[in-house]
Amino acid sequence: MLENSSFEALSSRLCVETGESRILGRVRTRVIAALPCVTFPWDGCGGAVLRGANVFGPGVVAAPKHMKAGDLVSVFSDLEGRCTRGAAGFHGNKAFVGNGVAEMDRSGIFRTEEPARGVAVRMVEPLYRSPSFDGVLPGLVFLQNLPSVVVGHVLGPRPGEKILDMCAAPGGKTCHIASLMGDQGEVVALDRIRNKIDRIRQNAKTLGLRSVRACCFNSTQAAGDLVSVFSDLEGRCTRGAAGFHGNKAFVGNGVAEMDRSGIFRTEEPARGVAVRMVEPLYRSPSFDGVLPGLVFLQNLPSVVVGHVLGPRPGEKILDMCAAPGGKTCHIASLMGDQGEVVALDRIRNKIDRIRQNAKALGLHSVRACCFNSTQAVGPPQGAGDEAPGPPQEAGDEAPGPPFPPESFDRVLLDAPCSGLGQRPNMANTWSLKEIRSYPPLQRKLLQAAVGLLKKGGVLVYSTCTVTLGENEEQVAWALRTFPCLSLQPQGKTVDVHLLK
């Protein structure tokens, strides 16, 4: 019947055509459809049908023009994958795999609005009478072919061992190994396709196996140890310890990029990535290196601040506490890079970072200066005083701070704060004394900001904390202390429907 065809070839596609061909009991059957591999994800459709499966709708590639549900049909495998989907017949290289009953009309199989779902042909006389185990004893039985079963026994896992299944999907061998270990120990299953990892987890859960840990990862890059990463919530772990049993929180799984000796070497601090996270607790994508020169990653509040400030082309803007430069660059881009954005920070390497970010984004209107912003107000400009120069490219020498009063059209003061509003945040070790140390500094910065703002200008004060003493009370103090200030409505800056 199969002539020179192999089972591997049968695993490719199934197909059929019209015509009287076989006798089923005393009933003549008509030959119908070509079906691709759809029934079992670990095997082709042809092989699945030979093992007792029915034929599902998405796999049908050819069927007679007038085929109706209830028709008796003969099913063939398209051995070379040349049958065109929707054909009424196929005369190419094919092999008979059995007879069945159509469960769908031709129109239902080849409908255009959405793919057909469910069984298209129920096999009543397969070539080999291999029973289907689909849905039989779920949670107790997992169907595998004999070689897959043998592999687990050859591996010989023992309770308490740590086992790696490098190309694990769909998880049959993984689960078999875990069961051979009595579910005692750990079986790490790797596959680089996310939905296959989900299938492994589902199968392990169905079988009640707790020792299986499935990770979405390319096994060719898995030379490092798989590790679980925790955060020390109270900062009590001693550096170099082999373990820690204090107050900690799980943040995800990763692959070690360094040996322990490389991390804790004494001659110099370790540099580079120690653990590459492959399964973080929250699936927040990394944008590192994505569209350099076009994209700069910011959280939503930082984005909102720039829009509230409302910079316009040609204006002179001051960002008083600017590092690492995200808001500075955003403001410059909102101005169309026309005007001047002066960025201040008192730490030299942070200023270098601002300049680097501005250069990467191609922004010429940013001028970064290493200076303490509380001292940024200079004497009034008079005879013989040199005013700050015109807009310069980032990093160029130009007259810098302190600046004469009323030098800027708009000022952004994103003040240093206790940071209690940062999310996500595992824990905070600030003492009350440390939290109370910020308001005096914030008031010094506010005083400088008001002094540098032109009449009719805009001052935006922002923090990333939630304390009244650093937010509402500071605004109230500024309004009392500087009668020239008036509180303005922020207005709508974010479409809340986009956040849903």
Automatic annotation (TrEMBL):
<dbReference type="GO" id="GO:0008173">
    <property type="term" value="F:RNA methyltransferase activity"/>
</dbReference>
<dbReference type="InterPro" id="IPR001678">
    <property type="entry name" value="MeTrfase_RsmB-F_NOP2_dom"/>
</dbReference>
<dbReference type="InterPro" id="IPR049560">
    <property type="entry name" value="MeTrfase_RsmB-F_NOP2_cat"/>
</dbReference>
<keyword id="KW-0489">Methyltransferase</keyword>
<keyword id="KW-0949">S-adenosyl-L-methionine</keyword>
<comment type="similarity">
    <text>Belongs to the class I-like SAM-binding methyltransferase superfamily. RsmB/NOP family.</text>
</comment>
<feature type="binding site">
    <location>
        <begin position="321"/>
        <end position="327"/>
    </location>
    <ligand>
        <name>S-adenosyl-L-methionine</name>
    </ligand>
</feature>
<feature type="binding site">
    <location>
        <begin position="167"/>
        <end position="173"/>
    </location>
    <ligand>
        <name>S-adenosyl-L-methionine</name>
    </ligand>
</feature>
<dbReference type="GO" id="GO:0001510">
    <property type="term" value="P:RNA methylation"/>
</dbReference>
<dbReference type="GO" id="GO:0003723">
    <property type="term" value="F:RNA binding"/>
</dbReference>
<feature type="active site" description="Nucleophile">
    <location>
        <position position="464"/>
    </location>
</feature>
<dbReference type="InterPro" id="IPR036974">
    <property type="entry name" value="PUA_sf"/>
</dbReference>
<dbReference type="Pfam" id="PF01189">
    <property type="entry name" value="Methyltr_RsmB-F"/>
</dbReference>
<feature type="binding site">
    <location>
        <position position="345"/>
    </location>
    <ligand>
        <name>S-adenosyl-L-methionine</name>
    </ligand>
</feature>
<feature type="domain" description="SAM-dependent MTase RsmB/NOP-type">
    <location>
        <begin position="230"/>
        <end position="500"/>
    </location>
</feature>
<feature type="binding site">
    <location>
        <position position="414"/>
    </location>
    <ligand>
        <name>S-adenosyl-L-methionine</name>
    </ligand>
</feature>
<protein>
    <submittedName>
        <fullName>(Atlantic silverside) hypothetical protein</fullName>
    </submittedName>
</protein>
<feature type="region of interest" description="Disordered">
    <location>
        <begin position="377"/>
        <end position="406"/>
    </location>
</feature>
<keyword id="KW-0808">Transferase</keyword>
<dbReference type="InterPro" id="IPR018314">
    <property type="entry name" value="RsmB/NOL1/NOP2-like_CS"/>
</dbReference>
<dbReference type="InterPro" id="IPR023267">
    <property type="entry name" value="RCMT"/>
</dbReference>
<dbReference type="InterPro" id="IPR029063">
    <property type="entry name" value="SAM-dependent_MTases_sf"/>
</dbReference>
<feature type="binding site">
    <location>
        <position position="191"/>
    </location>
    <ligand>
        <name>S-adenosyl-L-methionine</name>
    </ligand>
</feature>
<feature type="domain" description="SAM-dependent MTase RsmB/NOP-type">
    <location>
        <begin position="76"/>
        <end position="213"/>
    </location>
</feature>
<dbReference type="InterPro" id="IPR015947">
    <property type="entry name" value="PUA-like_sf"/>
</dbReference>
<keyword id="KW-0694">RNA-binding</keyword>
